[in-house]
């Protein structure tokens, strides 16, 4: 098994790690051991429900065993990175736990990722395999994965979950053939990296987040306490399940750790999701604000015809939930709202189930653990008084100390003494509740999906006629923010129009949510008044025009 030191990741300082172990904050078990415990205690209970399947814990465990053997027979083993790009279906759960069982590291890709992202992720992670679905939302992921493997030589295996009555392309491995007898395997080191999660990021190159079994399991178990997850919980993964939020806050891993049930819906739209809530008796789910609004508006009309009475808790996070929306969620959905402000790098804040209504509707909660350390600081790094806005920095037992193999990002995103700079501007009240006011990095939060301005600018600059590009966030009533690109073009007889440049960016193989909502061609950028090079000031001026 790889030791934590054998992968390019920054461990917690030795003494701090020792304390977390001694005090049992880090439980010293792997995700595979966690699943086995739940299987021992809840063998006949339902572990996973999707659109057409229902597996007990025993069945899930048997599938994990068979798949683990099949993957091992392909030559995938401890420490290998494997990209997983699967929609919200039962295979997702089996795949992730099969990889854990053989000590391989899932790299959590999203179904919306296209060639640009997958190629970059493949290179950055050094993945040797990709596991994907054949078709999802009428897009051919098998072809996509095959073309990515051509670009990334280390990617040796393209494994595809087939569609009924559709032939797989040649050269790929049929997921359903990956099976074998259960085997005894060495147990991974709980202090080792379990998987690579993705940061929404503010740079052009993807930042991979190494999470260990110890640290992540702590965040899951702590989330279960704060959100009241038990073996009676039925958690619906509404958002793409590879996101940190539905994965761990408390998410599918929380439900599985408690012996509860994971329900999965392919579509987050009310028609599909409400049907699943009724069918599976869903008690809890997690939504981004635009979806929470859609569900709330649908429920307010009282015409949908589904029984949502099983629902007790709705978590809303990923982006700032407007106070006005927060106040409507409970009455409409008949479930308690918990706001959640989290990040794949670690720190997760929740409003508590017994908080007064104004805290739940106007703040993003407080850190979930007494072991979280948070500071709100000014530009010089000095702590600001309670109630004053400042930069949020944090460290603790489940916040990473560095990205995977990325010294440049580490230098920017961590202080010299190991505090993670969240990039968020927040205000903290007397009780420690945090309100998110903005951010200090060039990241657009498009309804919970993060867009790195720099990444999109690089794709715009790849257009032969584009001389300069600036991407900014503008307020949007539904999404919270959308992306506006401003470009300068070369002097040509027929300069490209905004729509053509947008189509060009799409053609470069970018996830849909990153395609700028508008591209405006300008003759010149506004004068910033603080020197030509003030990108920050330029962004401010262009945001005002957006
Ligand atoms: P990532 O680092 O990609 O996991 O994205 C995490 C970021 O999402 C945070 O640093 C915040 O900027 C944003 N975020 C998450 N939850 C909330 C929330 N409830 N309110 C405002 N922003 C949020
Ligand atoms: O936005 C996020 O990344 C996020 C939101 C809520 C998150 O990582 C989480 C909860 O754990």
Write structural notes for this entry.
This is 2,3-dihydroxybenzoate-AMP ligase. Keywords: Ligase. Helix 7 crosses helix 9 (about 250-260) and helix 11 crosses helix 12 (about 325-335). The strands form seven sheets. A nine-stranded mixed β-sheet has the order 2-1-13-12-14-15-16-17-18, sandwiched between helices. The protein has a five-stranded parallel β-sheet with strand order 4-3-5-8-9, sandwiched between helices. The protein has a domain at about 445-545: 2-Layer Sandwich (GMP Synthetase, Chain A, domain 3), CATH 3.30.300. Helix content is about 35%, strand content about 25%. Bound molecules: adenosine monophosphate and 2,3-dihydroxy-benzoic acid. The site of adenosine monophosphate (AMP) has 22 residues, from strand 16, strand 21 and strand 22.
Observed structural traits:
alpha/beta; about 550 residues; about 35% helix; 27 strands; 17 helices; binds 2,3-dihydroxy-benzoic acid; nine-stranded mixed sheet; binds adenosine monophosphate; GMP Synthetase, Chain A, domain 3
């Amino acid at each position: 098994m790889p030791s934590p030191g054998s992968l390019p990741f920054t461990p917690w300082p030795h003494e701090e790690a020792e304390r977390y172990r001694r005090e049992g904050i880090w439980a010293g078990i792997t995700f595979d051991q966690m699943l086995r415990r739940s299987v021992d205690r809840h063998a006949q209970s339902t572990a996973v429900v999707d659109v057409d399947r229902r597996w007990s814990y025993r069945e899930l465990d048997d599938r994990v065993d068979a798949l683990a053997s099949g993957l091992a027979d392909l030559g995938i083993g401890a420490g290998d990175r494997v990209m997983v790009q699967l929609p919200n279906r039962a295979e997702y759960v089996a795949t992730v736990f099969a990889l854990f069982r053989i000590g391989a590291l899932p790299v959590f890709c999203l179904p919306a990722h296209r060639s640009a992202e997958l190629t970059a992720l493949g290179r950055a992670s050094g993945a040797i395999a990709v596991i994907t679905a054949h078709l999802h939302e009428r897009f051919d992921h098998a072809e996509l994965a095959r073309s990515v493997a051509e670009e990334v030589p280390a990617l040796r295996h393209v494994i595809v979950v087939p569609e009924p009555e559709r032939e797989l392309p040649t050269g790929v491995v049929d997921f359903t053939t990956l099976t074998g007898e259960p085997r005894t395997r060495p147990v991974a080191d709980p202090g080792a990296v379990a998987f690579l999660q993705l940061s929404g990021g503010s740079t052009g190159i993807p930042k991979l987040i190494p999470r260990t079994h110890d640290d992540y399991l702590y965040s899951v178990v702590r989330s279960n306490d704060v959100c009241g997850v038990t073996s009676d919980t039925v958690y619906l993964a509404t958002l793409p399940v590879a996101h940190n939020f539905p994965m761990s806050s408390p998410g599918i891993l929380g439900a599985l750790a408690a012996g509860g049930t994971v329900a999965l819906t392919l579509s987050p739209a009310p028609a599909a999701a409400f049907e699943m809530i009724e069918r599976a008796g869903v008690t809890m789910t997690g939504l981004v604000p635009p979806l929470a609004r859609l569900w709330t508006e649908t429920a307010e009309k009282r015409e949908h015809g589904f029984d949502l009475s099983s629902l007790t808790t709705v978590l809303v996070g990923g982006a700032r939930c407007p106070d006005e929306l927060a106040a409507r969620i409970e009455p409409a959905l008949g479930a308690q709202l918990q706001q959640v402000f989290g990040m794949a790098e670690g720190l997760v804040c929740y409003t508590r189930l017994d908080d007064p209504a104004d805290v739940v509707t106007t703040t993003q909660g407080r850190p979930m653990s007494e072991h979280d350390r948070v500071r709100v600081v000014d530009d010089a790094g000095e702590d600001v008084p309670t109630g004053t806005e400042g930069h949020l920095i944090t460290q603790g037992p489940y916040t990473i100390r560095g990205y995977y193999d990325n010294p440049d990002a580490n230098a920017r995103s961590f202080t010299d003494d190991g505090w993670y700079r969240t990039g968020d501007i927040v205000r903290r009240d007397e009780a420690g509740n945090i309100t998110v006011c903005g951010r200090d990095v060039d990241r657009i939060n498009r309804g919970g999906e993060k867009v790195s301005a720099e990444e999109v600018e690089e794709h715009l600059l790849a257009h032969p006629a584009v001389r300069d590009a600036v991407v900014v966030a503008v307020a949007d009533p539904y999404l919270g923010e959308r992306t506006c690109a401003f470009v300068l073009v070369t002097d040509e007889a027929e300069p490209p129009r905004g729509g053509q440049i947008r189509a060009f960016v799409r053609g470069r193989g970018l996830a849909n949510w990153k395609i700028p909502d508008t591209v405006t061609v300008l003759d010149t950028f506004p004068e910033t008044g603080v020197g030509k090079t003030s990108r920050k000031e330029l962004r401010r001026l262009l945001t005002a025009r957006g």
